[in-house]
Design a protein that fits this description.
- The complex is a heterodimer of chains A (about 450) and B (about 200).
- With about 450 residues, chain A is an alpha/beta fold.
- Among the domains of chain A are: about 45-290, Rossmann fold (3-Layer(aba) Sandwich), CATH 3.40.50.10420; about 400-455, no CATH class.
- Chain A is about 50% helix and about 10% strand.
- Chain A is built from 21 helices and ten strands.
- A six-stranded parallel β-sheet of chain A has the order 1-10-7-4-2-3, sandwiched between helices. Chain A has a four-stranded mixed β-sheet with strand order 8-5-6-9.
- By secondary structure, chain B is of the alpha/beta class.
- In chain B, a hairpin with a 4-residue loop joins strand 4 (about 110) and strand 5 (about 115-120).
- Chain B starts with a helix and ends with a strand.
- Chain B has a five-stranded parallel β-sheet. A four-stranded mixed β-sheet of chain B has the order 7-4-5-8. In chain B, strands 9-10 form a two-stranded antiparallel sheet.
- Chain B has a single domain, classed as Rossmann fold (3-Layer(aba) Sandwich).
- The chains are: A alpha/beta (about 450), B alpha/beta (about 200).
- The interface between A and B is large, with 89 and 73 residues.
- The complex binds iron/sulfur cluster (SF4).
- The site of iron/sulfur cluster (SF4) has 15 residues of chain A, from helix 14.
């Protein structure tokens, strides 16, 4: 059992050396992917929905400036204070200033991948403020001093015994507790106390409606609502690409989001914040941080359609066997590998290579982003710009622990079975669960072994 | 100023205007048995559903189920009695910290996912549907629509300060994907559908 004080790189290394854990991680995510399939297949018009969602997002992106102006105007008229941040630094400063103005030193936060992207927690902690993450998975990784390893399932890499150790150390549960029910109850008690005593709450935003100036936050736990409705100050932070034109478009996106993420028909809560509660102050921070640049890259623009459902991660054979931390970026998985090089080509040159290009991500994406094609295009850009050496070095490392760990690619027979079971593109026969799915990707004309040799040399 | 910089960069970089698609057709391939579908979806995500012939049948069922609970509040006037006190407004949301059961009326339920729509004026106070240990929702059968498209068609241009779709008790599966009901919000959700 890893001690909870271990650092993130140490834990990552442990994760990737431990064959059993890698298999468990792989199978857990595959199971979620299967729930997504079952849910999607229960909707006869699923493909029409995906197409509509993609087209609505195309429209939103093509008129984003106009929609942002309209959103701002409506939101202001609704009594929301709107801020604009060019980058992560400005975003963090804005949040800090709001808290300072109210003399607040403690913040309760619900899930927001944007604040992970901006490293808000570290920033505020350096200024002497305390931030408590209230999503259970995020609280767990926060106690473990790790970043989330998945955008929807932040502690998917953690075993319940490790969580028990953390809760023993920090929340006083009995040593050796690993029952999820008891651990969840302990977190409920701890976080309820937090919700009741914090004067400021920060939430993310899933959708912001240009037509009405309202924004929608989706959670299963109810933590965003508990925080926001008890606090005197609510700060909501969003990337500028979260805008959709009309309220009725939520019908399309709310049908797709939870089904794609976990297979649920909808999240437990889909809360529409239009005006602050009487006596409450509500802030909304609109963040660019590289999005306007991505907008200008025709090949990668569509990545801004992402609704952060996590389906591309759950289905990705490389993500499933390498874990979110191996992507060394707030957003991991296939979509993270497209978004990251936009911000720093050198630092993230390796990520577009952490893919088999099997296309499974593209097939499940609810907004029809051509994910694997964009990964392929980034590789070309990275090679052209001369970052290929470091990319290959890094990709070598990732592929090594992903695909060549003992037992994974050890013997022909074992490898054969693994490939059949978990590499979707390899073989088209009845052993391959992909074969039965309508999401069956195009089959490349090479074997896994050939692909592997070609790609990591 | 960042605002103007961002907007200028977007105007520079965003593509030619792409038109919005036509709305989703409202006729589904699947003909939904609304009530049965709603009930199956609700039970599938951990809610308890009672189908009752008339509104009057709801009160005794609530008292039978929750008689052991200390603080019950009803935002539905017609259900208030000696055993079920009326919701009383206090502008401090923290004062509802010890609510065990809160009762609400929804006028919109969605069969495809069993979500029930509540707006702030139906909640009494925003925090109540979340802070209560157990939530009870009462919805007329005629308020159930097939899917989210028809739901938003019904919401239309409605004015609300805050509104939410609630589907089931609060839940988490963050610990090894074990589904646990009662994450931060209600531990249970009981739905009464009356004809
Ligand atoms: S890229 Fe598509 S599949 Fe991946 S998280 Fe975004 S919306 Fe979901």
């Amino acid at each position: 059992m890893s001690a909870p004080t271990k650092t993130h790189p140490e834990l990552s290394a442990v994760f990737n050396k431990d064959e059993e854990r890698v298999n468990w991680h792989d199978e857990t995510l595959w199971w979620i992917r299967q729930k997504r399939d079952k849910s999607a297949n229960s909707i006869p018009e699923w493909e029409v929905l995906r197409e509509k969602a993609s087209q609505i997002k195309s429209n939103a992106l093509s008129n984003l400036a106009g929609y942002l102006v309209s959103f701002e105007e409506k939101a202001k008229a609704n009594g929301i204070i709107v801020h604009w941040a060019a980058d992560a630094q400005e975003h963090n400063q804005i949040v800090h200033q709001i808290l300072q103005k109210h003399g607040i030193r403690q913040l309760v936060k619900s899930k927001s991948m944007l604040t992970e992207e901006c490293h808000l927690n570290e920033y505020l902690e350096k200024q002497g403020l305390e931030v408590i993450d209230s999503d259970l998975g995020e609280r767990i990784v926060q106690l473990a001093k790790e970043p989330p390893s998945h955008i929807v399932l932040p502690c998917i890499h953690k075993k319940k015994e490790e969580i028990g150790d953390l809760f023993h150390q920090y929340l006083g549960v009995a040593a050796g507790t690993s029952d999820p029910q008891i651990l969840t109850e302990a977190a409920r008690v701890h976080l309820r106390e937090t919700f009741l005593t914090r004067k400021a709450a920060l939430t993310g935003v899933n959708f912001a409606i240009a037509e009405t100036g309202e924004f929608v936050v989706c959670t299963n736990e109810g933590n965003a609502d508990m925080g926001a409705h008890l606090a005197d100050v609510h700060i909501a932070c969003m990337g500028i690409e979260k805008i959709i034109p009309k309220r009725k478009h939520l019908g399309v996106f709310l049908r797709l989001l939870a089904r794609s993420a976990t297979g649920q028909p909808i999240t437990t809560y889909s809360s529409h914040f239009k005006k602050p509660r009487a006596g409450q102050e509500m802030h909304l921070v609109l963040v660019d941080n590289g999005r306007t640049i991505q907008m200008g890259r025709e090949d990668f623009r569509a990545s801004l359609k992402c609704i952060r459902c996590g389906a591309c991660m759950n289905t990705c054979p490389v993500y499933r066997r390498s874990g979110g931390h191996s992507y060394h970026n707030a957003i991991s998985g296939p979509i993270g590998a497209i978004l990251a090089p936009n911000l720093d080509r050198e630092k993230y040159a390796d990520l577009p290579f952490a893919s088999t290009l099997c296309g499974s991500c593209t097939n499940v994406c609810p907004v029809k982003i051509d994910i694997h094609q964009q990964l392929y295009k980034w590789r070309q850009v990275i090679v052209q710009e001369g970052y290929a050496t470091s990319a290959k070095k890094m990709s070598m490392k990732i592929m090594n622990y992903t695909l060549s760990s003992p037992g994974v690619y050890r013997t022909a027979g074992k490898a054969g079975r693994w490939v059949l079971k978990y590499i979707p593109f390899a073989v088209n026969n009845h052993f391959n669960p992909w074969y039965k799915q309508r999401d069956m990707p195009e089959v490349p004309k090479e074997s896994f072994g050939e692909w592997y040799k070609k790609n990591v040399k | 100023m960042s605002r103007d910089k961002i907007l200028a960069a977007l105007r520079q970089n965003q593509p030619e205007l792409v038109p919005l698609p036509a709305a989703m057709p409202l006729e589904r391939v699947e003909i939904l048995e609304l009530q049965a579908k709603f009930k199956a979806m609700a039970e599938g995500i951990g809610s308890t559903v009672h189908l009752v012939d008339e509104f009057a049948a709801i009160h005794p069922l609530i008292t039978a189920r929750f008689s052991g609970e200390k603080r019950i509040v009803s935002t539905i006037k017609e259900l208030v009695s000696a055993g079920i006190p009326a919701f009383e407004f206090d502008s401090d949301p923290h004062s509802y910290e010890d609510v065990d059961v809160a009762i609400f009326k929804s006028n919109l339920g969605v069969a495809e996912n069993s979500a029930l729509w509540l707006t702030e004026d139906q909640m009494g106070i925003r925090v109540l549907p979340f802070i209560t240990q157990h939530i009870v929702m009462v919805v007329p059968l005629s308020a159930i629509v097939p899917d989210m498209h028809t739901a938003y068609q019904k919401i239309g241009e409605a004015e609300y300060d805050f509104g939410t779709f609630i589907a089931g008790p609060s839940k988490t599966a963050d610990i090894e994907q074990s589904l646990i009901l009662g994450a931060h919000g209600p531990r249970s959700m009981t739905i009464f559908i009356y004809a």
